[in-house]
Write a structure and sequence with these properties.
It contains 2 helices and 15 strands. Strand 3 and strand 4 form a beta hairpin. It has one domain: Umud Fragment, subunit A. The protein has 247 residues and is an alpha+beta fold. The strands form 3 sheets. Strands 1, 2, 3, 4, 12, 13, 14 and 15 form an 8-stranded antiparallel sheet that branches. The N and C termini lie far apart (62 Å).
Amino acid sequence: MSEKVEKKQNALWENIKVIVQALVLAMIIRTVLFQPFTIPSGSMMPTLLVGDYIFVNKFAYGYSKYSLPFSPDLFSGRIFGSEPKRGDVVVFRFPPNPEVDYIKRVVGLPGDRIQMIDGVLNINGQPVPKQPDGSFNSDYRLDPGQDVPVFRETLDTGITYDTLDQSPNSRGDNTREFTVPAGHYFMMGDNRDNSADSRFDVGFVPAENLVGRASVIFFSLGNDTTFREIWRWPANMRWDRLFKVVE
């Protein structure tokens, strides 16, 4: 074998090793630290918009089988677990079909009593303060929402966030009282009249199903612009949302 051929083979092998190492590192980061997610629906408007790309902090609540690619059944429950705080925005696996990811806000912790009364969130018998905070217009084609009333809720922990109330008499505005069982959480979307959440088919979310806490918006495209449509980026980039912390 000539020296020239041997050098080419060594260079090829070094390149392969670099690529493999990069893939392994990316897999470790995605599995253990942060995972990117895309917001596909308007259920968390105005906090999160369709076309937002976010990083999810996967070590915030520890790890379950759903933290791993393909969700292998290596262990049950959570390891290095910690409890989410009321008000956290969380990615979790949909309990009836764990292959599907959902993103909602935690409003009920284990043992809490949750009820909607006339569009007001009640936690343990106490109404959450709700103040008008302007209006909202969406650029999402499937859920346009023009001049939708915005209300700012403030939890007893001091966490505050905006919600939408498009209709004063939707089916989710008055519910029975839900008592959150041990090891579970009650989730709601900030777009209160357009969110499939724990009031409905989602039900109580087991701690094992938590994937991580939404941390930051790193990219955002409006007007139903897909990531592949690079030529539409300049006109539809939501510059004011880049690197915005999710609250």
